[in-house]
Design goal:
This protein is mostly helical and 63 residues long. The protein has helices at 2-17, 20-59.
Length: 63
């Protein structure tokens, strides 16, 4: 029983020392922030593009 607890303790220590998970979380946060920035820029831009296409459609003959 004591040997099993010792192995579990060692595995927990090794798990706590790993840093790969922290890097993945950091990349996920960066990707999320970039997504928010793209959405913030694209939303007003989309309305302007829609207005341009509406203007073009109105100026076409036979519309």
């Amino acid at each position: 029983m004591n040997n099993m607890l010792r192995k579990l303790h060692i595995k927990l220590q090794l798990f706590m020392q790993r840093e790969e998970g922290a890097s993945a979380i950091e990349y996920a946060i960066i990707a999320g922030l970039i997504s928010l920035a793209v959405i913030a820029v694209a939303t007003p831009l989309g309305a302007k593009v829609a207005a341009v296409f509406s203007s073009i459609t109105e100026q076409l003959p036979g519309s």
